[in-house]
Amino acid sequence: MTIRKTLLIACLCVGLLPAILLAGLAFVKAKEAMQAEIEGSLAIQAAGIAAEVDKMMFERLQNAATWSHLDIMQDLQIRDVDKRLSRFLADLKAGYRDVYLNLSCADTLGTVLSSSDAALVGRKVERREAWLHTSLSGTDVELELPTGEHGSTVAMQVPLSSMFTGGMLGTMRLQLDWVRIEDVLDQAASGGRMLAILDRDGRLIAASKELRSRGLMLSTALTDWRSQSGAVAVHSGQPVIDSEVIIGAAPSRGYAHFTGFGWTTLIIQPVDEALKPVHHMAMIFLALFGLIILFTVLIATLVSREIARPIVALTGFARGYMRSKILQAPPVAGRGEVGELAEAFVQMVRDIDVSQQNLVRASKLAVVGEMSSVIAHEVRTPLGILRSSAQMLQRESGISEEGRELVGFIESETERLNRLVSAMLDTARPRTPSYQSVDMHDLIRRSVAMLAGQAEKKRVAVAESFHAANPVAECDEEQMTQVLLNLLMNGLQILDRGGRIEVSTRDDAGDLWIEIADDGPGIDPAERARVFEAFFFKREGGIGLGLAIVQQIVNSHGGEIEAAESRLGGALFRIRLHRKQTENQ
Predict the structure, then answer these.
(1) What confidence tens digit (pLDDT) does each residue in 532-577 have?
(2) What is the SS3 assignment for 174?
(3) Is the full-model pTM beyond 0.70?
């Protein structure tokens, strides 16, 4: 696995795991808080609905008890012959609008004598089984079970007694419009909630619209749901719905001096409907989590790439060097520890490259040393004899012109071979520099003067441009002369007629710089590092030792030499020498 992938995974783990944990914890806590809020709301609402129903029933019971003791009820003794009681009942019904469906009074035999509905006078009252009994203000009140399509009518009966004899006159019958109770439940049913009222036997006597439509009126299907009266519980939704429901239950506590009928008010909230806000919140959490993932991946990618970029570049730099053995341009070092690592690594590779080059150069020079030892003993003596013989032949008077020319060739070639042997010996056994203070400007002028004849012969202009304020440096004068002559000779040999060579100097606090530039063909950038290798040459007739000797001498002085391109368009050799060798030993 690459470092970039490792960093990316690490950033994602660091960024996403806490986000996942926090989002999950926040969601769970929010769900718990919302469910607790819903349960508390259901319990409060159930208690409020129960109190409102108790108040409505108290008002109706109170009306029945009060009306039964009115003097006008005594008209039953004369069978309401003047219909005064009937008109009174009709006025009561109209005054209470839709609270009562019918108000009537019947004799002891159950015949209706007075009624708010004249069509009912003379009919028999259909008595049903008593459902509830209570006493209010000393008056016994009896209720029948709700009747009608959905249980929309409840009959309430109050006994009527004679004010004179104390005997029974009959009963007052009040037909309550049970829809008024159901309207209260319908108005409270919102957000998917359903409301129900169970009597003390667990029968469903009133319900909101959705629950009424399920055919459960007067059944005991919801009896078990009142077992947690006064609390909130989660039940299976059967037989109402297929999902779970939250039940808020509140018992009837009565109103004023009315103790109530022991009814239980239920508020039924489907769990799915109740937790819709939670589910909506979950979708918001998921959307935010997706944005967090996207943002985290983006940031992690940028961070990992930024961290890995210098390391990847460093790896490419190392692989390029291993592949081609050529030191490429180093990657740009960043800041911090990675930048320091990159700088240290690049410097290490450079040191290895220099060491390798030095090792190659030392190997080549070692070969030159071995060859020089053989040549010094085996070649110089025959060369000396050949040269002496050629010189003696030239003194002979009888030799022809053609013979003299051939003898000249022998002498010049033996001289060239002798120089070759000397160069090889100088390379193989370099002499330790003998330091003394030398005015490099004077040394340069003398070196240029030594080659003035050859420069004039090729019509090459040699210009001097001295900018060093202090040209004095500690060096071996003879060896530095050899350096200057070799570099100038290289320029003279490579330039065409009419070429130009410039020798310039400059200095800084502790070093002296010498530059020798020409306007020749220059050096290929790929070969600039190799021109100082032994036996590397491009010029026909060269042996590739001149620049190797130059670099060896400069390095022995603790200096540096490099090849570059001159402002004239040709080659440039730049030498840096220390002014004080004793300070650099």
Answers:
(1) 776 666 665 556 677 888 888 898 888 999 999 888 889 999 999 9
(2) strand
(3) no
**Band of the pLDDT at 229, cuts 50, 70, 90?**
very low
**CA of 508: how far to CAs of 318, 437, 470, 511, in Å?**
35, 17, 9, 6
Q: Which one, of 507, 490, 495, lies nearest residue 447 by Cα?
A: 490
Whether 261 contacts 200, CB under 8 Å:
yes
pLDDT recorded at residue 38: 79
Span 251-278, average pLDDT: 85
Sketch out the chain's domains with CATH numbers: 40-274 (3.30.450.20), 432-578 (3.30.565.10)
Are 191 and 275 in contact, with CB atoms under 8 Å apart? no
Side chain identity at 220, as an amino acid letter?
Answer: T
pLDDT number for residue 472:
92
d(CA 216, CA 102): 27
Residue 175 CB-density burial (10 A; 0-12 exposed, 13-18 middle, 19+ buried)? buried
Between CA 480 and CA 492 the distance in angstroms is 18
Maximal CA-CA distance, the chain: 197
Per cent of the chain over pLDDT 90 is 21
Q: Is 470 left (phi over 0), alpha (psi -120 to 50) or beta?
A: beta
DSSP for 240-276?
T-SS-EEEEEEE---BTTB-----EEEEEEEHHHHTH
Strand partners, 264: 198, 251
pLDDT of residue 506: 93
* Residue in 1, 18, 28, 30 with CA at minimum distance from that of residue 293: 18
CA gap 89, 110 in Å, rounded: 17
Distance between CA atoms of residues 228 and 163, nearest Å? 48
In this structure, the chain runs to a length of 585
